[in-house]
Amino acid sequence: MLQKVISYLESSGYRVLKEIAGSGKYRLLLIERAGRKYVARVASEAGDLFEMQYCKEISSCPNVAVPEFLDENLSIAVRKYLPKTLRDLLDTSGLDDVEALNIALSICRALECIHSKDLVYTDLKPENVGIENGQAFLIDTDSITRPFSRPRFITLDYAPPEYHEWGIVVKESDLYQLGLVLIEMSRHITSCIRSELQSLASMLTKRNPFDRPSARVVASRIELLIERLS
After folding, report:
1. Are residues 156 and 182 in the same domain?
2. Which parts of the chain sit beneath pLDDT 50?
3. Domain total for the chain?
4. Whole-prediction pTM
5. Same domain (yes/no): 90, 204
6. Residue 150 in contact with residue 162, Cβ under 8 Å?
7. How far is CA 69 from CA 39, 41, 115, 142, in A?
8. Is the N or the C terminus of the chain less surrounded, counting Cβ atoms within 10 Å?
9. Burial class (CB in 10 A: 0-12, 13-18, 19+), 124
């Protein structure tokens, strides 16, 4: 199977550089074409038609690394290569104020657009946030689903109360996960914005999903913080 994928990619003008670590759901290949690097995601079975449709709907969304599906039969999805994830930053160098706020704002913008398409991202966590030049991109789209549905994939450590109780996610579930991500980010910040991020996280992790602020409201709060620091 993998050799077929490599042959297909090479015939499409890509150069396969190496296999890279993934989440375990897929095999990931680092590939290159015309001097630019990409990640090819290879599944063990045919591509998910729902994910393909959802990706078409969010193709214009900022801060989402939306994949291009090259071959449905071989289930190859190619997205832009992002050298680091938020998890990498949290585990190594940490974050400064402006960097942390810009990453949080990028995530909010991605979620705001996804929600405007009546979709839920579902699996927000530091491992699924790619970083490039201080900007954040959501990099795993196979978890996207409609509100009030049971997701195909979700990380239990980040799953909201409504998933544990009813087995479903809603748009506000993404905001709960954002709150957990902000809590993790705040632990790596020593400045005055730590309390601001923790305050936002407290609102985002309320048990009742409909008491959580929207991505737009959170983005507005973060924009004010950025202005205050500039």
Report:
1. yes
2. none
3. 2
4. 0.93
5. yes
6. no
7. 12, 9, 22, 12
8. C
9. buried
